[in-house]
Write a structure and sequence with these properties.
Elements: H1 3-9, H2 11-19, H3 23-41, E1 52-56, E2 62-67, E3 72-77, E4 80-85, E5 89-94, E6 99-104, E7 109-114, E8 117-122, E9 126-132, E10 138-144, E11 148-153, E12 160-163, E13 167-173, E14 176-182, E15 187-192, E16 195-200, E17 205-210, E18 213-218, E19 222-227, E20 230-233, E21 239-242, E22 245-250, E23 255-260, E24 268-273, E25 277-282, E26 285-290, E27 295-300, E28 305-309, E29 315-319, E30 324-328, E31 332-336, E32 340-345, E33 350-356, E34 360-367, E35 372-379, E36 385-391, E37 395-399, E38 405-409, H4 421-426, H5 428-431, E39 434-439, E40 444-449, E41 454-458, E42 463-467, E43 472-476, E44 481-485, E45 491-493, E46 499-500
Antiparallel strand pairs: 1-2, 2-3, 3-4, 4-5, 5-6, 6-7, 7-8, 8-9, 9-10, 10-11, 11-12, 12-13, 13-14, 14-15, 15-16, 16-17, 17-18, 18-19, 19-22, 20-21, 22-23, 23-24, 24-25, 25-26, 26-27, 27-28, 28-29, 29-30, 30-31, 31-32, 32-33, 33-34, 34-35, 35-36, 36-37, 37-38, 38-39, 39-40, 40-41, 41-42, ...
């Protein structure tokens, strides 16, 4: 149907609205007519942002389609594909790594798979996962934290089932090699390497034993542990001696004693009587604290510095090649060593940290923790640099070692969670009213305002701009330029007089 036909069909409605002085229907109808006429008359990718807009990627090779403002996007890149309906669901697949990620309501539920290993989590309480051990034996975990724990393995020795608080066994969970309980906390047995601890009404009474080790405690009243000389084989197959130790406490944590590495170069003694004093003595380090933790003196011969705190944490002075600095909290403080330097002004108002390692320089400074956060890194071998700037909630800017950069306005969470890919996929589209990206090596840039209400894309050969649902479009190529207004036929410039392309064959219709 032609535009003239649509206008003729709509004439009664237009006349009725005009006669009744209700122009709203007239404007809506005219907008629909113009939009669909433009959709039929214009070939190429849809450019009706924020309704529907398809454009080339700037930082990668591929295309991206966005629709309904921030509520849908699909990205097809050279090595990955992803789509999302923020904030409800997001999916990403990395072709090279064979890695699949699903996010539902950001962190409410997640699913990740990489090769044969996978994990599903719901509110960090309902969890299932499958993994392979070093000997390629599969494990399948199922957890309803903290009530039910289960693992089924190709190796039956790693199978376990646990129901809290009644009965169960865990293996390689909760920082222990094995945990077994009956009517928790009445009886709990744990094993970490060779040390087995039997807890009765945990954590109040326990008895432990291991390789030349014995001990017991009636917490917090009294506890003791003794370990004799033992041996272990290091990573190169050599047998090493581990010195004996003795540990005890009375009215924990007020009175504690520890003597480790007895008879060895790493021998160390610690004695605590809180709040009166704390003593630490070893071949490499001496620490004396009076009225803990306020007045301390440290002689760290291993690190090469001496430090005085009087009183901690308000005043500190350190001298030596391993550490030099001073602190007058909360007004000012600084300390530096051969590779690390830190500084603060007025407590959390300004803090900085500078690292100089063998091949990396890193400098980070912050104002009020994450209100403003700045990070600069440099690979000193190659000279390549990266940058990151975040000003909560106004903007977030990054530039990687390849020179690719991106700027986002607004950014309420990105400065606090700068490395969260799930945040970028699920939530960032909702509030990023301005986005700009630059890829210098490929000669591409892009800018987007209000989810492509205004959008500009440039490459080494083309310049394209669109505004207000595609009503205004401008394109520049080496051989010509073109202008299009209100979905009317394009007017081309270059190589002669301006040309009206109304009679040119139309391409495929936009959706």
């Amino acid at each position: 149907m032609t535009v003239a036909g649509l206008l003729l069909l709509s004439a009664p409605v237009i006349y009725s609205d005009l006669s009744s002085k209700k122009p709203l229907t007239l404007w809506l109808l005219a907008g629909v007519v113009v939009f669909f006429w433009g959709a039929r008359a214009n070939a190429g990718e849809p450019e009706y942002g924020p309704l529907l807009h398809k454009f080339p990627l700037t930082l990668d090779i591929g295309t991206k389609t966005e629709a309904a403002g921030p509520f849908y996007y699909r990205e097809d890149a050279e090595n990955c594909e992803q789509w999302a309906v923020p904030p409800f669901v997001a999916r990403r697949y990395d072709k090279k790594a064979d890695k699949l990620s699903w996010d539902f309501l950001w962190k409410a539920a997640t699913y990740d798979r990489m090769g044969p290993e996978s994990k599903f989590s719901l509110l960090e309480m309902f969890n299932t996962s499958s993994s392979l051990s070093l000997d390629e034996e599969g494990d399948r975990h199922f957890t309803i934290f903290p009530l039910y724990f289960q693992n089924r393995s190709d190796n039956p020795e790693r199978n376990y089932t646990a129901v809290m608080p009644f009965y169960g066994t865990l293996r390689n969970r909760l920082f222990r090699d094995e945990i077994h309980w009956v009517m928790f906390p009445l009886y709990v047995q744990t094993r970490k390497r060779d040390v087995v601890t039997d807890n009765f009404v945990a954590p109040f009474f326990d008895v432990r034993h291991g390789d030349n080790l014995s001990g017991w405690q009636f917490w917090p009243l009294i506890g003791r542990e003794h370990k004799g000389l033992t041996y272990k084989t290091n990573v190169v197959g050599e047998v090493e001696e581990i010195g004996p130790h003795r540990k005890s406490f009375y009215l924990w944590p007020f009175v504690m004693n520890s003597h480790t590495g007895i008879g060895k170069p790493e021998e160390e003694k610690q004695q605590t009587v809180l709040p009166f004093y704390y003593l630490e003595r070893s071949q490499a380090r001496d620490v004396t604290t009076l009225l803990w933790p306020f007045f301390s003196w440290t002689d760290d011969r291993g690190a090469g510095y001496r430090e005085w705190d009087f009183p901690y944490p308000f005043v500190m002075v350190a001298k030596g090649p391993g550490k030099t600095g001073g602190r007058f909290w909360p007004l000012y403080g600084q300390a530096h060593s051969k590779t690390l330097a830190t500084r603060f002004v007025l407590g959390p108002l300004y803090r900085s940290k500078e690292l100089n390692s063998e091949n990396l320089y890193r400098f980070r400074w912050r104002i009020l923790y994450f209100l403003y956060d700045s990070l600069d890194e440099e690979n000193t071998d190659t000279g390549k640099k990266s940058e990151r700037r975040g000003f909560t909630p106004f903007y977030f800017y990054t530039k990687d070692f390849n020179g690719n950069s991106s700027l986002q306005i607004l950014a309420p969470l990105e400065p606090t969670l700068p490395t969260s890919d799930s945040l970028r996929r699920c939530l960032s589209p909702l509030w990023s009213i301005w986005r700009s990206e630059s890829n210098p090596s490929a000669g591409r840039t892009s800018q987007s305002f209000l989810w492509n209400l205004y959008r500009r894309d440039t490459s080494s050969e083309t310049r394209k701009s669109s505004f207000l649902f595609g009503l205004f479009r401008w394109e520049k190529r080496p051989e010509r330029r073109s202008l299009q207004l209100f979905y009317l036929p394009k007017i081309k410039f270059g190589g002669g007089e301006p040309t009206n392309v109304a009679l040119e064959p139309a391409g495929h219709s936009a959706p």
